[in-house]
Amino acid sequence: MSKLGINGFGRIGRLVLRRLLEVDSSLEVVAINDLTSPKVLAYLLKHDSNYGPSRGASTLPKMR
Where is the Glyceraldehyde 3-phosphate dehydrogenase NAD(P) binding domain (predicted)? Predict the structure, then answer.
């Protein structure tokens, strides 16, 4: 399994993560680099105004 980090969680970063969560992927997202808090990032992922609610994971993993 390859590990992936997302640098920036704007429109493109969120779409990449949504797609990875929706399909069986051999990629594991291990980091998201953004200025916003993890709670806000989770909210933005879950409640997308253009693409609707996310069907992927909706809980925050353990943060360091």
Answer: 2-64
